[in-house]
Description:
InterPro entries: CorA_cytoplasmic_dom, CorA_TM1_TM2, MgTranspt_CorA/ZnTranspt_ZntB. It is a multi-pass membrane protein. Belongs to the CorA metal ion transporter (MIT) (TC 1.A.35) family. The chain crosses the membrane at residues 267-285, 297-317. This is Magnesium transporter. By secondary structure, the chain is an alpha+beta fold. The protein folds into 2 domains: 4-255, CorA soluble domain-like (Beta Polymerase, domain 2, 2-Layer Sandwich); 260-319. Helix content is 59%, strand content 16%. The chain has 9 helices and 7 strands; from the N terminus they run ββαβααββββαααααα. A 7-stranded mixed β-sheet has the order 2-1-3-7-6-5-4, sandwiched between helices. Strand 5 (80-88) and strand 6 (97-105) form a beta hairpin. 27% of the residues are buried. The mean pLDDT is 86.
Amino acid sequence: MTCERRTRVWRGGATGEHDLPLSELPKLLAEDGTLTWVDLLDPKPDDVQELADAIGLDKHTVEDALGERERPKAVRFHDYFFVTCFTVEGMAEDDDLHRLSIIVLPRAVVTVRLGNDFPIDTVEETFSADDDLVRLGAKALLHAILDTVVDDYFEVMTRIDDAVDDLESGLFDQQHAGPAIARKAFTLHKRISRMRRVTLPMREVVTTMLRRTDPEHHELLPYYEDLYDHTMRVAEWSESLRDTIESVQDTNLALGDAALNNVMKKLTSWAAIIAVPTAITGWYGQNIPYPGFGEVWGFWFSTALMVAIAVVLYVAFKRRNWL
């Protein structure tokens, strides 16, 4: 798979050139009033190294940008920021999480995507349509990217929340309770755990960028404060869903124990009822004289006695809801 590279330039808030070669980047980085966005999709180490050589990136940045299991974080390297996070789609399965690394320079933003699920075209169109936001530079473009990432978190959490609601609705359905509920709850718990590992560190990322917002770009503060609020909400949502799914699992186990106890009560009750005729026939099977021994009425008496006691036990157990 070859690396896909895109370049977009804005000059003075207006759209400029597209798909420039990397050799032009040093010149663009030194030019006032420009903003450049370089996007790499599924790059090889040589592709990232070529970019690093062109704009002077630290070797640790190259390593972190290509690592698939890096934790979401925001780190300052010399005169640029390195931000990494995860994009999520679908239902937060393993294949639905993809790394997104963002390098924020004074006049440029570089994104390294490991997976093609991020709506880069939508972000580009939305950002380009707001001239005032474009004039705010690289930190404004970073906000647009992170805001889209967090919005995708909300969509995924909404789908998971709906699945949890459906699971709760079927919890007391005898046809689907038990192992089926346990399997679904376990699957949802894994998805929620993945979302927690993605969303909780994002609070630190947004907080870091909020603190590092330049005083001359104070117009960006409300944007990042709003993004921080969204990040907090989605993180709290993941925590709430985790508690809910754990409650569902506990309730399902309790219902299983209750069902087992109910079965044991029924088995014990029927065993007691069946024991009555066994005891009476065993008594009448003795080879010694007893009332009704050798008489027809003795047979009918023993039969009536078995039926009567069995009925009494059945009624008694039924009243106690054991049957």
